[in-house]
User: Fold this.
Amino acid sequence: MGGPDNYYRACGNPFAAQPPLAGTVRVDLCVIGGGFTGMAAALAAAESGRKVVVLEAETVGYGASGRNGGQLIPGLRWSAGELVETFGLARAQAIYQVAMMAVDRVAARIAKHDIACDFKHGHFEAAWKPSHFAAMARETELLARDFGRLELELVEPADTGRHVSTELYHGGVFDQRGGHFHPLNYVRGLAEAALAAGATIHEGTRVTAIREGRTVEAVTAHGSVIADQLIVAADAWTGDLLPSARGFTVPIMNYNIATAPLGSLADKLIPGDAAIADSRFVLNYFRLSADKRLIFGGGEKYRQSPPSSITEFVRPYMAEVFPRLSRTPIDYGWGGIVSVTMNRLPHLVRRDNIWIAHGFSGHGALLTTLAGELLVEAIDGDGDAFDTLAALPHRRFPGGPFLAKPLASLGLLYYALKDRL
Ligand SMILES: Cc1cc2nc3c(=O)[nH]c(=O)nc-3n(C[C@H](O)[C@H](O)[C@H](O)COP(=O)(O)OP(=O)(O)OC[C@H]3O[C@@H](n4cnc5c(N)ncnc54)[C@H](O)[C@@H]3O)c2cc1C
Assistant:
């Protein structure tokens, strides 16, 4: 998993291996995890003059950040309607506004550091059934009226083909502020920028324990880092490191494939080169790579064991959307862990000098850069936006250490089945 079968690794920009930690180091900020969250935090902290060290168990981008669908989906997993219903209009607007900051933060990083990650604008959410389209029409109206999202475009069912050439969908919403990118190249670009700003990154350095106190110590097999502040950006692995964070997320296996390059057919399948995701709970999501492959994600597994063939596991989902690709060669298939919270909103927490952001629930490609930066801003004393997200209510999955995952699986299966009706 994540080896030669990961398309992004096969074609990623070079990134020089960073040496493991050896000995004891004293810093202002220690970051655990070299994904989007950790690298965004390290970069922001190094820019503001802090001495910062990142400890990454494997390599930069080893986790979800180097494996995901590359879909940049503005907002949160909740609709604006759900936010208003739960929190009232004013608080919903504040939450949504913070979440939308992620769009500009990612674009700003790419522009400032000239990150070559095939960044493209445009995201299309395709309606799986007519009732989903009706809900999208209500949501688009609400977003334009109360959230200032005037640029969202409701695409009538008859016009679906402008974005995706399939009979499967019933219109949708086109969001020019969304988009897609090569995720591994983006995180490697953040890492290069963090190094240039003075951060130190240690790959192959797994943190085995955290010692809390006035300073905090991240312990590894060959040394430790003593820091004033610690950011835990280990997403799916956060609970392994910090018992207090355990139970707030469950890991869901998700799989992607990359077809052989499709040449001119690619632009016929996705004429506007947008990223496409459908409106189901367990969704299909797909887009074109720079070399005109279809990168397709579909199906979820609630057990960690991979399917015997990832390509054959995902292929039927792709063939359902594009029957003409049912025999197209698939060059790569890989999987990763999506870390999901109970309510599918991200979980940001502060405990004294320990800061945590995890559980981005499939929306992390944009939100993680924001989260990493907000943690650093909050450490700097500018915590308003951090507080807005940290105040989102979260509960542990029921069932404790043994039953949480099976119970969550059952719950998720229920929603997946509802979509099929
Ligand atoms: C297959 C797949 C498809 C996805 N598609 C999308 C998508 O299209 N759009 C979207 O918005 N989101 C998507 N996501 C989710 C998104 O990728 C994540 O939300 C995001 O990458 C999380 O970033 P992160 O930096 O918080 O965590 P990660 O990228 O997982 O980084 C955590 C890092 O911590 C390291 N680590 C763990 N334990 C330790 C330790 N003890 N010591 C040191 N280091 C440690 C890991 O090695 C890892 O590199 C997808 C996820 C997957 C798996």
